[in-house]
Write a structure and sequence with these properties.
Layout: H1 2-13, H2 18-23, H3 27-32, H4 39-62, H5 74-79, H6 82-88, E1 91-94, E2 97-100, E3 104-107, E4 112-115, H7 119-125, E5 130-134, E6 138-143, E7 149-152, H8 165-214, H9 225-249, H10 253-275, H11 279-295
Parallel strand pairs: 4-5
Antiparallel strand pairs: 1-2, 3-4, 5-6, 6-7
Helix pairs in contact: 4-8, 4-9, 8-9, 9-10
Length: 296
Amino acid sequence: MNQFKKGWMNMQNKSFPINYFNSVLTPVKNFIGRKQLSWPKLLFVILFLNGIMMIPIVINFTQTEAIQLKSTFPAIYDLIDEDVVDSLNQTTSEKGQVTFTEPFILEKEAGIVLGGVDEQEIEEALEMTNALVFAEDRFYLKEGDLPVSEITYTADVQLNGWQTVDDLQAEINRQWFQYNRVFIVATYSFMITGMLLMMNLLLVFGAAFFIRLAGRSAMIEINTYKESVNLILNAMGIPVLLAFLLGLVMPDISMIMSVQTFGLVVMLVLIYFRTQFSEDYVAKRKREASSHRGGA
């Protein structure tokens, strides 16, 4: 028992976060390190693990070159047809500037598409329900009650030379995404972080609740709910690392959560078999291991 207490005190003497990282290394350390963190530190660890799991998702999204404009402007997206492709094929593009050989106005049932027109015609078009307007250095999107989106072309814009509607839609998608990239990535990251944090909170506090219920047994030495939470977070360390590494290859949030959850279950099973959730059992195993080494 003295040897066990000495090991436990060594863990306690390590400063945060070193003591937490030390506690995630083995199932035995998961268990004996269950008392070392205060509530503020436990909450910090939850945020830290959540942030690690978010890294692959954010990296993948920042590398995306375009997203479907149709999800935000479905009516505008459907305005782009063969007539628009043919009209824009009469333009030339250089260093973010589009030159129109002649203006065009395409009135459609769902809205209007214009290109190379003067400012007055642009203003009139943007008063309509749905409008897609191409100017020399930017284009405008107006759909329903949504605010007008004014998108400045990138230096490599290419509105001409496309053979299909899909190709032109992809280029307009790219232009819109590049202009709004920072806002889109920040919004997406905030939403996914919040969702992932909520799932992690449910997982941690839910699993800790059941561990605490089991701790009411005299055979299990888990005396407080905080110990249960600390134990769960210790056990989550390695699964979160594995989920992070796999996420770099397959950045899918459902896969990341599945690896983390399955890994946590495996770690809890290993903790049980290695410790029986009992400090006396751990101390007994240490004495037996020491006696075997001494006998050898």
